[in-house]
Write a structure and sequence with these properties.
Blueprint: E1 11-17, H1 24-40, E2 45-47, H2 59-65, H3 73-85, E3 88-97, E4 103-110, E5 116-121, E6 127-129, E7 135-137, E8 149-153, E9 156-160, H4 169-177, E10 180-184, H5 191-209, E11 212-215, E12 219-221, E13 227-229, E14 233-235, E15 241-244, E16 250-256, H6 259-267
Parallel strand pairs: 1-2, 2-3, 9-10, 10-11
Antiparallel strand pairs: 1-16, 3-4, 4-5, 6-7, 8-9, 11-14, 12-13, 14-15
Helix pairs in contact: 1-3
Length: 294
């Protein structure tokens, strides 16, 4: 048993890579089929990408198609699949209606009995204008979350995050300091930003926290005209990519050994060395520099 994790068993993680479209029923069916494929390949835990249930750019059409949590067809299907396959299913995120004007970009962790054991609402909203003319205003339709969330799996503690959160390392440090040995980062990266930053940022989050990174992704040209980067990744705590997808839908499998976390953190114990500090104005000098000299 690892002293750092309190767990001993390895497990198999399955990352579902998708090309979500505008029809929630079709997206649900595609996801359930890939989850079943992951189970057939020996998965104990399956992660789907961000916005598994719908990728609809027109606001009115999106709100007409999504539902409140208790009525979401994808969530219901995932709970049934978890019971059927006796596995953990992590819905990377679903668009869930929380008011007439706003949705939540919400992640759900479902246990093998089909019970929801954790929920996480994406904290950081992707509001950008890219050089190629693409523009995204996630905050116009989604309500940002305010709470960092982790949950204990049989193999160790999992930190829940979503996509754009990746660019805010303090969130991952907080999760690691709270005991997370695995960091889930389900995503729908644009091709442009993915080509520039995907691999380096995922590896950085793994290295700086001595944690596994599990990143299921959307990939390819979607029916709404958006192109996502794909390349679902599993990165080990030393920063080595141990599994990677391409751009096509499918399942990416990896063996996860929690003992690798304690080994990496023993080599670089930075989680134990963090110190709090204050930021001062550029011309200000610390008080001790003004002490009277003998």
């Amino acid at each position: 048993m690892s002293a750092a994790t309190g767990k001993s068993a390895t497990f198999r993680a399955g990352l579902v890579q998708m090309r979500t479209g505008r029809n929630p029923q079709a997206n649900r069916d595609a996801a359930v089929k890939l989850i079943s494929e992951a189970k057939d390949k020996g998965a104990d835990y399956v992660l789907t990408p961000e916005i598994t249930n719908i990728m609809e750019p027109e606001r009115e059409k999106m709100f007409a198609a999504i539902a409140v949590e208790d009525e979401d067809i994808t969530l219901a299907a995932f709970r049934e699949a978890a019971r059927k396959h006796s596995i953990y299913i992590h819905a990377g995120s679903l668009a869930i209606k929380v008011s007439p004007e706003k949705a939540a970009n919400r992640s759900f962790l479902i246990d093998p009995k089909g019970e929801i054991v954790a929920r996480y609402d994406k904290i950081h909203m992707f509001d950008v204008d890219l050089a190629n003319g693409e523009s995204y205003r996630e905050s116009s339709r989604f309500r940002p979350g305010e709470l960092a969330v982790f949950s204990d799996l049989p193999w160790g503690r999992l930190g829940l995050t979503i996509c754009y959160d990746l660019r805010f390392p303090a969130l991952y440090r907080a999760l690691a300091e709270a005991g997370a040995i695995m960091l889930a980062i389900p995503s729908a990266f644009t091709r442009q930003t993915g080509e520039a930053h995907w691999h380096v940022l995922m590896c950085a989050r793994a290295i700086e926290n001595g944690s596994f990174v599990l990143a299921a992704a959307q990939g390819g040209m979607h029916e709404n005209g958006r192109e996502t980067y794909g390349h679902s990744l599993v990165v080990d705590p030393w920063g080595k990519i141990i599994a990677e997808g391409g751009t096509e839908p499918g399942v990416i499998m990896a063996e996860i050994d929690p003992a690798a976390v304690s080994a990496a953190r023993a080599k670089v114990p930075s989680l134990q060395h963090g110190r709090r500090f204050e930021i001062v104005e550029p011309m200000a000098e610390p008080a001790h520099l003004h002490a009277v000299k003998p």
